[in-house]
Amino acid sequence: MSALLEVSELRVSFGALVAVDDVSFTVPTGAIMGLIGPNGAGKTTTIDALCGFLPAAVGSIRLGGVALDGLRAHQRARAGLGRTFQTVELFDDLSVRENLLVAAIRPRWWSPFVDAVAPRRGTRGVNVDDAMGLMGLDAVADARPTELSHGQRQLVGVARALATRPRLVLLDEPAAGLDPAETAVLGRLLASLPAAGVSVLLVDHDMNLMLGVCDQLTVLDFGRVIASGPTAAVRTDPAVIAAYLGGGA
Ligand SMILES: Nc1ncnc2c1ncn2[C@@H]1O[C@H](COP(=O)(O)OP(=O)(O)O)[C@@H](O)[C@H]1O
Ligand SMILES: [Mg+2]
Predict the structure, then answer these.
(1) Which ligand minimizes its atom distance to the CA of 221?
(2) pTM for this predicted structure
(3) In the prediction, which pLDDT does 145 show?
């Protein structure tokens, strides 16, 4: 298994608070890596730092062997990092497909020329229709977000991240507010992503979902990694049970 994402000694401080404290972990190519830990453990801050939303973060981040350090958020997105946000904000007067198209378009003044000369350039990974299909949204492609259930809107949030053609998608609590049946559907859809060429870093509190779909887990506690590796090993790690799993969280 080759490493897709290599995070090394990532550190984020907010004033005196060290929210992410020398965090290191690796996401293998084709893996679904779960990032778990109690509220305030630093999961969202880690995602923000990986995506370049926290320029004060220190440490080193490589994607496919290429250093992302110093790159801005849009440059990291272009390098292949997609993400969702903990709160899904959609354009309510656009259709589902149009919401994805807005995310997928990367306007450049030279784009029409490149498209004319090399139309296949920049078509790595999934396109908008693939993204909708992967999240089971074909039937609602022309619907407005306001016509969808909360569960479907969460899926649109994931599909929109996929439409940016990521190699790795970072999902922040995509099962928030979903009922068990909707969560099971989400889990099956997420499990299909590696076969479509998209690796996943998944943050969620639902341990059924996490243990069901993650082949790797990294556990954060007070901003520090207390375990990282294959799910079967991490879930039985005494430190993890004591800090997190044992508490019924
Ligand atoms: N913008 C910010 N300013 C100050 N403190 C923050 C900020 N964002 C997060 N924190 C703090 O950093 C810690 C980690 O937060 P967060 O990454 O959101 O945790 P999680 O996503 O694991 O629940 C918490 O103590 C939180 O209060
Ligand atoms: Mg969070």
Answers:
(1) 1
(2) 0.91
(3) 96
